[in-house]
Design goal:
By secondary structure, this protein is mainly α. It has helices at residues 2-59, 64-72, 77-110, 116-141, 145-194, 210-244, 247-280, 284-321, 328-354, 358-383, 389-409. The chain is built from 11 helices and no strands.
């Protein structure tokens, strides 16, 4: 009961943070949709996915691994910060060289041969995001939820303000460039205002700390593989729809997945902020209890989410994107069912993440992402555009079954009591 109350109190703070972030993101999305339209939003979607893959590849050394190591307190905060920054800068240099060499090819492949400059800005954006993530992860790992909330809310507010300003001043061009520029500007400002005392402490000797290095790189590997297949899958699906139907239809589909990202932010923040540190610092019966609490919260959140979206889907689409995007409403009512099941998946999946079950986590992410592409495009081809989310529902059900089976068969190995 005490654990449930502790999670509930923490969840209230996280919910407040998530709601504010949701409001800021909604405002920015509405402005983006107004200036970009369905076709422009398809381009924005491709760029955002490329940014997310790049950020995962580089900034992953400043997120989950930092949260876990700070929470466990096996290494000093200065050592964690130093090693994370060294890895961040090293990965960023590799990313910059890759984008310089392949930017033109990526532009032709996914962006119609345009927006090359936006692609070349992305590596610089990723560095700024990595530094911001490092601060967030530090507060999260120490379970300093008040500082974490203020930091993330201010960052989200600045991203929204930058996006709106770029759209209003530069129109469609500003909308597209905001994908890379807005998070970079916000990250720079928030880092100056709220940086931790451990930030920018460089101690190259920490590279010799093999345990810490192995931990950060293992989490980085998991994040990179996950992002590459998840966001890469979304890029492929949108590209397939553009060729099969039109760029406008792809923009409609992106509006559904974008709105899904907005409301799923609440769930993802709750799980990463509350469950990951608790899973990381618990074992045996205590961890089993934490999983039970997480399952209860997940079921409640999933039911409320489905009811809310089904009741207000028309309003949400028109309010955020405009009348041009109205066909997305009926698609969203199916898509949210897959999202609800995905929330239940996170309860078990975060055990693998917290306990560094790298092999299972990576294989599961590859499996679920490939399955998503296969089933979504199969339903799209067989039943048509409006029924495409059924493939996502099937994928979520199969993924949940796999996770439950893994938990049941390997419970002792993952030390959950």
């Amino acid at each position: 009961m005490a654990s449930l109350k502790g999670n509930a109190y923490a969840a209230l703070g996280v919910a407040l943070q998530a709601v504010l972030k949701l409001i800021f993101s909604a405002v920015a999305t509405k402005v983006l949709a107004f200036y970009a339209g369905p076709s422009g939003m398809a381009i924005v979607g491709q760029l955002q996915s490329l940014l997310q893959i790049a950020a995962a590849g580089v900034a992953s050394v400043t997120t989950t691994g930092v949260v876990k190591n700070v929470a466990e307190q096996k290494h000093s905060s200065a050592a964690i910060f130093s090693l994370s920054l060294v890895l961040l800068l090293g990965f960023s240099l590799v990313l910059l060289l890759l984008f310089a060499a392949l930017g033109g090819y990526l532009s032709v492949l996914f962006l119609g041969g345009e927006w090359l400059l936006v692609l070349l800005i992305i590596p610089l954006t990723v560095v700024a995001l990595g530094v911001t993530n490092l601060n967030m992860s530090y507060f999260n790992g120490r379970q300093e939820y008040r500082a974490y909330t203020v930091y993330t809310v201010v960052f989200s507010f600045l991203v929204a303000c930058s996006t709106v300003a770029l759209c209003v001043v530069f129109g469609v061009q500003g909308a597209v460039y905001s994908v890379a520029l807005s998070p970079a500007l916000a990250a720079l400002i928030v880092t100056v205002l709220f940086r931790s005392g451990h930030l920018f402490v460089f101690d190259l000797s920490v590279i010799k700390n093999s345990d810490l290095l192995r931990s950060l790189l293992s989490y980085s590997f998991m994040t990179i593989v996950s992002a590459l297949f998840v966001y890469g899958g979304h890029i492929y699906v949108r590209d397939f729809m553009t060729k099969a139907l039109s760029l406008q239809a792809t923009g409609i589909w992106y509006s559904v997945t974008r709105l899904s990202e907005l409301y799923m932010t609440i769930a993802s923040i709750a799980f990463s902020t509350i469950l990951l540190p608790r899973y990381s610092s618990s074992s045996g019966a205590a961890l089993t209890k934490e999983i039970g609490v997480g399952a209860i919260l997940a079921v409640v959140a999933a039911v409320l989410l489905v009811l809310f979206v089904i009741l207000f889907s028309d309003f949400l689409i028109v309010f955020l994107f405009g009348d041009e995007f109205m066909p997305a409403s009926r698609i969203l009512r199916l898509y949210v069912i897959g999202d609800a099941i995905k929330i239940l998946c996170w309860v078990v999946l975060y055990v693998a993440l917290a306990k560094q079950n790298v092999r299972f986590y990576v294989l599961f992410e590859i499996f679920s992402s490939v399955l998503y592409v296969i089933l979504v495009l199969s339903i799209f081809t067989w039943k048509g555009f409006d029924f495409t989310p059924i493939g996502y529902i099937f994928q979520s059900v199969i993924s949940l079954s796999v996770l439950i089976g893994w938990f049941a068969f390997f419970r002792k190995e993952i030390r959950v009591g």
